[in-house]
Amino acid sequence: MILYLLIGYMFLFIHRPFEVWPFLGEMHIERLYALGIAAAWLILSPKRLTPTLLDFAVASFVGAVLLAWGMSPYGSAGDQLVEDWLKIVFFFVLVRSSVDRPGELRWMLAAFLAIMAVYMLHSLWEFFHGRHTFRMGIARLIGVDQTLGDPNSFGASIVYALPFVRPFWLTVRRRWFRGLLAGFVALSTACILLTGSRSALLGLIAWGGITAMQSRRRFRYLALGSVAGAAIFVLL
Questions:
Q1: Which position among 20, 99, 155, 235 has the lowest Cβ density within 10 Å, counted as fewest Cβ atoms?
Q2: pLDDT-flagged residues of the chain (< 50)
Q3: Which of 6, 224, 222 is nearest to 108 (CA)?
Q4: What does the alpha-carbon distance between residue 170 and residue 172 come to, in Å, rounded to a whole number?
């Protein structure tokens, strides 16, 4: 049960429907859900946790952030940023202490890609219906949420999700699933290009180059990528 609650929390944090539909924001649905999942974690989860160097590093970084935030004379300017970041830390603690089987982690990663796909499709739908920002002389795609909806933040979120495609591609043999993965990459590429974000575009190129170099057909993929890049440049 805790696994599905974690997936629901991921959806709330990524898609942020309470920012898309204001009436949900007035209900404070995210905070209520966070309290509910915390209670379920305390009661239902066996809380299996073997500390690692990663846990120590995260705990140290949390301490450094809280110390810097508390001592800064401009701490109030970072209140929202620190709060959003601590939500990610909260999610990290829940995942580390509750998900300890490969199958559960696989389900979480698959759900993460599905949630990102819904987020991108919804943003594209709004873009084609007139919702965008106009910068650098072009209409730029933005996310449907407010917190991470800026073109650069939106593009960065997509780039961060792309590395999780490869593990599924290497381990899944079903053609329909691979078709979904290819569709996810195509959707991600289209969204990054429409954001007009140069940093996200560089991230996409870096991910594509690294992924191609890990394949036996690296030279073929690099050649195809070069041709596709030139075609996309002309289209844009």
A1: 235
A2: none
A3: 6
A4: 6
